[in-house]
Structures are given as structure tokens and as C-alpha cells.
Amino acid sequence: MEHTRYRGRFAPSPTGPLHFGSLVTALATWLEARTVNGDWLVRIEDLDPLREPPEATDQILHSLDVHGLHSDEPIRFQSRRHPAYQTAIVQLLENGQAYRCTCSRKQLQAHNGRHPNECTKRHSAPDDAPYAIRFALMDQSGQWQDLLLGPQHQTVRAELDDPVIQRKEGFFAYQLAVAVDDIDQGISHVVRGSDLLDMTAQQQQIFRALGAQPPLWLHIPVILNAQGQKLSKQNHAPALDDSQPATNLVQALLALGQRPPAELTQADVNEVLAWACTHWRRAAIPLTSRQARGITPSTQSHSDH
Ligand SMILES: [Zn+2]
Predict the structure, then answer these.
(1) Domain with 74 in it
(2) What are phi and psi of 195, to 5 degrees?
């Protein structure tokens, strides 16, 4: 299954409104797709209703809209994709590439991350205990070419790293859903934060287990706050100020190592995006978060709102 057309995506979890770090990722995915006349899709990864304030999805979609980042296809919601994930789980279980695991975190720690045979060799669902479904990784060293970071090498440890693909509560997990949807939507390139870099070799195995060629990856540095932590909901990153989208975009371009002229903050959003398309240089993206620092997200002054 060769990818013939560039198809990229921005796929936020609606755990809160977009913050500056998510705008940087969204803009990088959009520019990578636009500058090669590829498709750019938006996917809402709403897999865990317990962590998702009901208003967050609308806030995210509104922010993207205000910043001129429009999906080329109808927005996909993972909450409406459960049958596809269930089909994938059944397939992986039947192929012996997944197993039903009753272990608690405590039990796993006590056994150095190893699962008893009751987990890995079980043939049907246990009727007496709740279970998660884990993907059975193969002991393997994964190698690939990151489009920014160059050659990558990761060791995957079977059992110890086996990711949960359906949680005990029944929720489908990110590791499964992201692969099923990237395959289904024909995503050829994934641009995302380098906090997800360590998962790549595992994810390649999941793509292959589902019969698909993995996409190409480009990991951009995560944006840090003044304390050196990743901008995130957990670290109380302020929401993007949707009233000044051109300024936000210019600052996102700076964080991506681009050199927009200062007067661009006075332009409208479409002019900023047009400048960015013309001048986009992937090679200018900083390799590390430290190098990406040195700018203050404009949203910080609005953190008390
Ligand atoms: Zn287990």
C-alpha cells in the first residue's frame, strides 16, 4: 500500500481548549501538507469522555477556524468510530497479536512487567475479572528516518512495553485508535510533538499488524513554558487568545524557526498563512525544545481570564 498523495492531519484530544503548543503543532502539520499541495485533515480524538469537557471540541474547532486552518474533509470524531476499533481488536486477538490482560499495575510491577501465562496464552475472555486488551509487541529494534531528526533507532521490549489498546473500563485506547484512523484516512505523513517520539517503533508494529504500511514521521520540539515544562492542560497552559490570531500565528512561526517579518502581525490571518506557505523551511525547525524557546507566547498575559 504505497501512499501516492500527501495526507496529513491534526488530531487533538479535546481535554481543553487549544493552547499555544497545540497551535504550533497544528500549523506545522498544515504547512507540511499545504506546501506540497497535499490534504490536511482534522480529527478529534475524543476517546475518553471522563477527561473531556463537553465544550472543548467546539472551542478547538472555533480556534482552528479563527486561525484560518480549515480541514479539507469533514471532521472525524473518534467517538463515532467504535465499530472500526472493535473490528481491529477482534482481528488482533484472532491473530494472536493482542491478549486479554487482567494484571493490575501493582501486579505488573511485582513481576518486573512480565505477564503470567493466564494473560498471554488465554483463549477466551475471563468471566471473573475485568481485563484490558494489550497489543503483543515483538522484541525488535525499530529503525526509521524521521523527516526532521534523521535516522532513529528504538528497541521495543515485548511484554514490558505492551501497550493497552482497550482499557478495563471499555474505552478504546489512543495507541489503537490512532493507527486505525491513520490507516483508514490514508494518512501518509504524521507531524507531531517529540514527546510522542518514543512511541513510534511500537506504533509501527501496530500499523503492520493491521496490514498497513506505517506513515512517515516528523517530530517537532514540544513548546515549553517558563518553568521548562511542556505546555499542556496539566501544566495549566493558557487557552489561545482567539482575538489575535495573526499574532498567534506569527509567534507559532517563530517557534518553528521561521522568520516572519514583524509587520506580519498587523496583517490578516490569510496573509500570514500565505507568507508562511511561500517561506516555509522545514530545515529551520529547531531540533530541540531548548532551541525552540526564547519567545513568549502572547497568550501568557491572558492567563488570568
Ligand atoms: Zn497481564
Answers:
(1) 7-79+221-302
(2) -65, -15
